Amino acid sequence: MGIIVQKFGGTSVADSEKILSAARKAVAAQEQGNQVVMVVSAMGKNTDMLVDLAQQINTRPPAREMDMLLSTGEQVSVALMAMAIHSLGAQAVSLTGAQIGIRTDSSHTRARIQSIPTDRMRQLLDENKIVIAAGFQGIDENFNITTLGRGGSDLTAVALAAVLKADACEIYTDVDGVYTTDPRILPDARKVSQISYDEMLELASLGAGVLHSRSVEFAKRYGVTIHVRHSFSEAPGSLVVAESESPTQAVGGAAVTKNESLVSIKDIPDQPGTSLTIFEKIANENITVDMIVQNIGLDGKANISFTVLDDDLAVTQDAVRKALDHLGSGQLECRQDVSKVSVVGLGMAQQTGVADHMFRTLAAAGVNIQMITTSEIKISVLVERERAEESLRLVHDAFSLQTAPPDAQTKDIGGSTESDIAEVASDLVGMEGLRVDDVLLDESQGRITISQIPDRPGVAAHVFENIAAENIFVDMIVQSDGSDGQASLSFTVPRNQLDAAFRVAESLLKDMDGAIATSSLEVAKLSIAGIGMRSHTGVAIRSFQSLAGEGINVEMVNTSEVRINLVIDGNAAEQGLQALSSAFADVLQKKATESNTP
Ligand code: ADP
Ligand code: ASP
Ligand code: MG
Question: Which of 238, 361, 449, 497 has the greatest number of C-beta atoms within 10 Å?
């Protein structure tokens, strides 16, 4: 007999009929000999309604009271679900997060899980009862009710599956699995049989709302297999596991974040600590930034651009203004007519020709790419918002995502948790604490920068097609916002291909009115790898802080869910590595002891 966790999202419990239908699934699973834990979200749009109600009364409601209010949505659902189970002749007990004892930190409205006792749930399961857990909520050390962030019931489900060592963690929702992109935006999208944690993590944080990104982080950390499936069907859905669907495919999925705002800060001093001052002020507001691009200053001045969600723009602007006051120079410009389109795939780290294919596809349709950032497994571009969905479709088509790769594989749905959960309980920083696995130094690359590139469609495509034609492997790419004609494009290539890459860059300058190419052998790439790199907003800050403290300037940055990469002056390579290693010593050390645990 195994334990099954079944989570039902809002639309899956939107009315009494749907609640009964979900209850029937749980009872059927129990009749097949399983112990069943259900995790239930608030009915339909109940949480949105509660948010709205709060706004009518107070536009800045105290976060503690917001949690008190929002947690009621799930409390309604669990009680009704328990009644539904009883009406079907089975036994059930509903429990709030507090009653289970889901302990979180005190950051209201976005609390992180620290520990979950299993005694009470196990006892009820052993009494043949179906346990119905309220999703999205917990309790802090002072018995305050907390919530885990919007969409957080997925996280509750994965966390319960982890601590109970469940045999399956089924996420029932209103689509029948994970698609290559949001099927509501692109009906052509294809359901994947399985997707890797890392790809799902990136997609979730880049706009694929089917799973909460922290639930995927949790699943990766504790080896929980997630099975995403349709609430009103018996068909198998998609598995989220360690391996991707196809070992050879470069791109596995695409996503769009429509409501992205571009923040550009011009004419700030090009010296260590500048980015720190700015990002510290933003992180203090708990805002996650993406697509950070810092232009290498030709005139002793630097420009920094990055994106934030529209909803965070006003607070970000205030924070940046404070930072600029402190720096004594710089101008702030913001745009809200942009969206981020991204492709994700574990396979792209090993292949050339992925970025240029994406850029050419957009260029051929006359879509101007306003910014570019890449990481090992994703490429994001910023485009005009009006053309965002069209760009998503073009890119999805270009990588033939609607067609299953010939070597598509599906893992067996076996036992769902793979790691030793005993270790989890003793984890001092809490179950969702930051985990840094490695701080790495890569001195094998050089950097090419083309400054003052024209702001028109096709420039990036032109550059990277010519680079790919020489079989040069490009690692990091960043292109800054070009609206004022000052855009620059930087990328890194293996040192032994730097000369060849520079010759290509120079040969293209004639087509790029007034652009200038420079190259540097003397760069070093530092990386911090782990889990929660982006969701813990402090990681980037800590990196900037430690490098600035040593007087080291960061020339290029990129961030993903699992890694932060920083390109610095090659002469400071060792010094930078030391600085980062000591900045993360506390979390790194924990990993060292963890890996010694048998
Ligand atoms: P629930 O209330 O069950 O948690 P959500 O609305 O949070 O459901 O998530 C399901 C929705 O996620 C789907 O209706 C779909 O539109 C959206 N979605 C976005 N990206 C994807 C994707 N790549 N695959 C599947 N669904 C996606
Ligand atoms: N009810 C919460 C929300 O709407 C949690 C969830 O549905 O996952 O955000
Ligand atoms: Mg959801």
Answer: 238
- C-alpha of 477 from chain center: 19
User: Roughly what angle, to the nearest 10 degrees, separates helices 573-583 and 538-549?
Assistant: 130
Span 226-255, pLDDT tens digits:
999 999 999 999 999 999 999 889 999 999
Q: Could you give the strand order of the β-sheet that contains 145-147, starting from the edge strand earlier in sequence? A: 113-115, 103-104, 137-139, 145-147
Q: Tokens 């007034």 belong to which residue?
A: 514
Calculate helix-pair angle for 354-364, 459-469, nearest 10 degrees: 140
Nearest to 539 by CA among 433, 440, 426, 428: 433
Query: How far is 217 from 530, CA to CA, in rounded Å?
Result: 10
Given a contact cutoff of 8 angstroms between Cβ atoms, the answer to whether 4 and 34 are in contact is: yes
How far does residue 579's CA lie from ligand 1's centre (Å)?
Answer: 41
Query: Strand, helix or coil at 176?
Result: coil
On whether the CB atoms of residues 275 and 553 are closer than 8 A, the answer is no
Residue 8 CA: which ligand is closest?
1
pLDDT digits (tens, 9 = 90+) for 348-398: 988 888 999 999 999 999 999 999 999 999 999 999 999 999 999 999 999
Separation CA 70–CA 97 (nearest Å): 13
Token reading at 585: 């010593």
Tracing tokens 């994700």 back to the chain, one arrives at 344
Measured from CB, residues less than 6 Å from any atom of ligand 1 are 9-12, 41, 151, 173-175, 178-179, 181-184, 203, 208-210
CB burial readout 549-584, b (16+ within 10 A) else e? eeebbbbbbbbbbbbbbbbbbbebbebbbebbbebb
- Residues β-bridged to residue 108: none
Which residues does a 6 A CB cutoff place in the pocket of ligand 2?
9-10, 41-42, 47, 73, 135-136, 150-153
Q: How far is the CA of 416 from the centre of ligand 3 (A)?
A: 20
The span from the CA of 201 to the CA of 147, in Å, is 21
- pTM value surpassing 0.70: yes
CA dihedral 276→280→286→288, nearest 10 degrees, is -20
Residue matched to tokens 């293209």: 508
Among candidates 45, 51, 52, which has minimal Cα distance to 13?
45
d(CA 561, ligand 2 centre) in Å: 22
Relative to beta strand 168-173, strand 3-8 is parallel
pLDDT band at 297; cut points 50, 70, 90: low
